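User: Design a sequence. Structure:
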């Protein structure tokens, strides 16, 4: 397993993720996605939306606001229960999550768990609410208090009736949302794994009471399979059931999909059976009836809810970590990110073999402009071909296309109108006619390298 430091430094060096406000010394636990990071995270979100919303007949989307009526958080239980136990150290003035002391490090040297140095003087644990507070409007008094949402889920529950009625939805159906959430975490860390501002990809799936356990299992299976579909190795994924005493106040059963991050097994996505808790709470606190009329039984029911709740940042980090590899090519170390083509920030790099030949350069530019209409493609002529390949391997570009003298022809020979495609993973090359490049690329993006091989043959290994 790769160390997190290697991932952090690759991310900075190659424009994936930067420390927020770095020129001012950085802001703790806040990160900015650079040009390649934003592509990766967008691709993760796009794949999720396509598979969870677009490709299903039983899901619709929503984009609710971050600031909501403060009563929402009373009804949901967040004001009273969304707390973590916190301890202070009177010696070093550090603050730690009491239930995660084993993950924390005391600032005193040598590095140890808080409480393990003789000088450590930890207080009793006290509960700390994780919601960020702010004020709506110009007056900062109690009546103006608002909260930054700590989860996107509540935006879905309060819109249950709007969505169900406007779209005439029948149970079972789901509402999906991607958006920012905020938690004033006591001990953020492990790069983008635990931050105070992050993006969630959440589904609230409404079902008839009695069918909830079955639907819960279906979503567990489906979400687990999703991560492997986009390349995460099965041995690095596992399902962990919550113990009874660990269950959230609203949950009948919860299981987490965990990933083997560099710091150990940690939650990637939580999948909970939230029962009818939220709809009932909001009905009680708002005075509106949030029910569903079942045509078959002619009865009103409060649906049960299955909630697959994933993090876009944690997802992107897991895909990055899992894709990282090092090997040796011709005696030199090669760093490679073997992203699934759907997730790769750059899909194709177009490289001219001789940048002093104007016909090669012109053809390569034109080719790149054409490919760009379909796939995120870049042109690069700033180094030798070997170095250009390494650079693309390091950011996970699945295919490089090179234009050479044979492509455009010269005094001695006519143009063959063919280009070379080089595969990131096996480093093999095939030569294909320019005219069929788009069709070939389409197949390659679908993982048909072996098939394309048979048709075009390998030119160089
Ligand atoms: P943890 O136990 O790690 O604090 P949680 O159980 O509180 O997580 P949920 O409330 O289930 O997390 O949130 C759903 C998903 O949102 C998580 O699986 C994770 O992917 C993401 N998430 C939650 N908190 C954070 C955070 N502080 N930083 C980044 N992602 C987060």
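Assistant: Done.
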């Amino acid at each position: 397993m790769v160390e997190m430091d290697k991932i952090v430094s690759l991310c900075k060096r190659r424009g994936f993720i930067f420390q927020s406000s770095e020129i001012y010394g950085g802001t703790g636990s806040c990160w900015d996605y650079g040009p390649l990071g934003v592509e990766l995270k967008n691709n993760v979100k796009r794949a999720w939306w396509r598979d969870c919303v677009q490709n299903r007949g039983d899901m619709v989307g929503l984009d609710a606001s971050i600031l909501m009526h403060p009563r929402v958080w009373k009804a949901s239980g967040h004001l009273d229960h969304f707390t973590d136990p916190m301890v202070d150290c009177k010696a070093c003035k550090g603050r730690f999550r009491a239930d995660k002391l084993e993950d924390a490090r005391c600032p005193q040297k040598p590095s140890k768990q808080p409480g393990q140095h003789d000088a450590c003087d930890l207080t009793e644990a006290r509960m700390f609410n994780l919601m960020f507070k702010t004020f709506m409007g110009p007056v900062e008094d109690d009546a103006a208090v608002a909260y930054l949402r700590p989860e996107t889920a509540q935006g879905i529950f309060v819109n249950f009736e709007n969505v169900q009625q406007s779209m005439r939805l029948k149970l079972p159906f789901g509402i999906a949302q991607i958006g920012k959430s905020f938690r004033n975490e006591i001990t953020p860390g492990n790069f983008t794994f635990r931050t105070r501002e992050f993006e969630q990809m959440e589904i609230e799936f409404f079902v008839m009471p009695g069918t909830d356990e079955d639907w819960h299992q279906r979503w567990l299976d489906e979400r687990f399979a999703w991560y492997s579909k986009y390349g995460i190795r099965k041995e690095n994924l596992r399902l962990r059931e919550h113990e009874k005493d660990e269950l959230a106040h609203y949950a009948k059963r919860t299981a987490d999909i965990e990933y083997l991050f560099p710091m150990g097994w940690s939650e990637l996505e939580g999948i909970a059976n939230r029962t009818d808790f939220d709809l009932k709470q909001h009905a009680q606190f708002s005075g509106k009836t949030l029910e569903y009329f079942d045509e078959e039984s002619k009865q009103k029911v409060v649906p049960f809810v299955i909630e697959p709740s994933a993090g876009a940042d944690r997802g992107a980090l897991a895909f990055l970590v899992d894709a990282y590899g090092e090997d040796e090519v011709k005696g030199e170390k090669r760093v490679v990110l073997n992203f699934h083509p759907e997730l790769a920030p750059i899909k194709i790099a177009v490289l001219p073999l001789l940048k002093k030949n104007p016909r090669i350069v012109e053809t390569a530019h034109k080719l790149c402009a054409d490919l760009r209409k379909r796939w995120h493609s870049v042109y690069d002529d700033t180094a030798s071909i070997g170095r250009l390949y390494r650079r693309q391997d390091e950011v996970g570009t699945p295919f490089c296309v090179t234009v050479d003298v044979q492509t455009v022809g010269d005094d001695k020979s006519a143009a063959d109108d063919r280009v070379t495609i080089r595969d990131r993973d096996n480093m093999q090359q095939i030569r294909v006619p320019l005219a069929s490049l788009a069709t070939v690329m389409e197949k390659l993006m679908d993982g048909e390298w072996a098939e394309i091989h048979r048709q075009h043959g390998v030119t160089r290994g």
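The two ends are 28 Å apart (CA to CA). The chain has a mean pLDDT of 94.
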